[in-house]
Design brief:
By secondary structure, this protein is mainly β. It is built from four helices and 29 strands. Strand 28 and strand 29 form a beta hairpin. Helix 3 packs across helix 4 (189-198). It is globular and about 65 Å long.
Amino acid sequence: MEDEQNEDNGTISEEGSEDEDGAEDEEIGDEEKVKETYLPGQPIEEGEELVCDESAYIMLHTAETGSPCLSFDIIRDPLGDNRTDFPVTTYIVAGTQSMKTVTNKVLIMKMSNLHKTCNDDDESTDEEEDEEQPEIKPNLDTAVLPHYGAVNRIRMTFVNEVPLASTWSDTGKVHIWDLTKPLQAVNDHRQLEQYSKTSSTMKPLYTFSGHLSEGFAMDWCPTQPGVLATGDCRNNIHVWKPQEAGLWHVEQRPYLGHSGSVEDIQWSPNEANVFASCSIDKSIRIWDARVDPSKACMLTCNNAHTSDVNVIHWNRNEPFIVSGGDDAKLCVWDLRQFQTKKPVATFKHHTAPITSVEWHPTDGTVFASTGEDDQVALWDLSVEKDDESREEDLKDLPPQLLFIHQGQKELKELHWHPQVPGLVITTSLTGFNVFKTISV
């Protein structure tokens, strides 16, 4: 992969595509190596090594950027919905966390030529045809926007077909960016070359400096284009409403109720004025944005977790919210029973704080989670316990746990691709993973 602009452009590769011959030679010995399923937390004996089982993946690619991107979002594209053909193309927007305030950037990335993962089951019977077929490597094109301060969180939306990204800066400011030009650039190498010469002068479309501290919570309303909610570490939530000429009106009176940092916000996918929030005060709250901000909290579940509630996500198909906390637990809340203040399901598989949760965009029973234990877990609430069909080593695992993905360090966020069924993208201190498993 050739760098088009600078070190933050990054590279993308297919997992297991390098040194395949060498790895194969090492596996051939006087004694056959026994393959066993590894579960997180199990001891690794001397002479044993962890190897990715590529047969469990339909696709698996990795990407790296010069500075880590600990928040990102997927950009919807005009390539169609429910895409199942390969190779895959996907667009994402991410924000860097560089040590120097002035060197941070917003990255607009186009990942293309993402092919299926090759394994023994996919080998062609015609060896000559395989030898003649040229190797097609994955490609990454990147356009950058200068961002003053590290990006705590970034979220994407479209307003009147204009692609917009909002960023929470660790300087305490929230910016909105027009991504039209960088998106055009990553689709045309000539435009990208010209864009790179002027990108350093790009400015945010709008900036709000009214928060009293930095924050992380941020979400665009899916039913009212351009409406945004942001929450900070000083307990305050502000709601933004779009105005003419690329401006926003931000309600100066904050929505009050939390007694600690607001960690995440989610708008209802169905009700235009309803949103949920979670906090280090252990609570999850449901708000009505039509009401005076001081009285807008309609429902509260205190002690939703035994410690900080880090993340929440609102199901797009069912009246459920999933939450993840510092207690390493995942809780599923039925909003029809929210006043009981009891989750309808609780899962304790992760061994460290939960950093991200997200429901599958179309399957109302499937969600994914990441944790500081460096695990990505895929779950399905519809699966019931069946001890007879489970291997002995797996009987202690929740039956709803479909898949465990590992290999990244300090996982921060995950997203399901809304247009490519089953495709998951994750980000961590060590880069991005783009994968699709045989389980979902």
